[in-house]
Amino acid sequence: MNVAVDEPKCVSAGQCVLIAPEVFDQREEDGVVVLLDGTPDPELHPVVRESALACPAAAIHVTTS
Asked: Over 80: is that where the pLDDT of 34 sits?
């Protein structure tokens, strides 16, 4: 799995951080998503997919290789 974020689309809702804090964080100054792990371990794949679905701005993109 490869994860990418579209920072300009992020609305700083923080759902991704609540669901998968091992993979996502937020910048202190504006709350925009920070990708901590672009290739998460397989056990995190379900929560990463959930984060992408929960993102109100559709700023999280998940691909599989």
From this structure: yes
pLDDT attached to residue 2? 98
Closest of 30, 26, 33, 32 to residue 3, by C-alpha: 33
Per-position DSSP letters for 3-63, written without gaps between them: EEE-GGG-----HHHHH-TTTEEE-TTT--EEES-SS--GGGHHHHHHHHHH-TT--EEEE
Place of tokens 């609305």: 11
pTM of the model: 0.94
Instruction: Tell which residue, 56, 63, 62, has the closest CA to residue 14.
Output: 56
Query: By the 8 A CB rule, do 48 and 1 touch?
Result: yes
User: How many Å apart are CA 52 and CA 61, to the nearest integer?
Assistant: 7
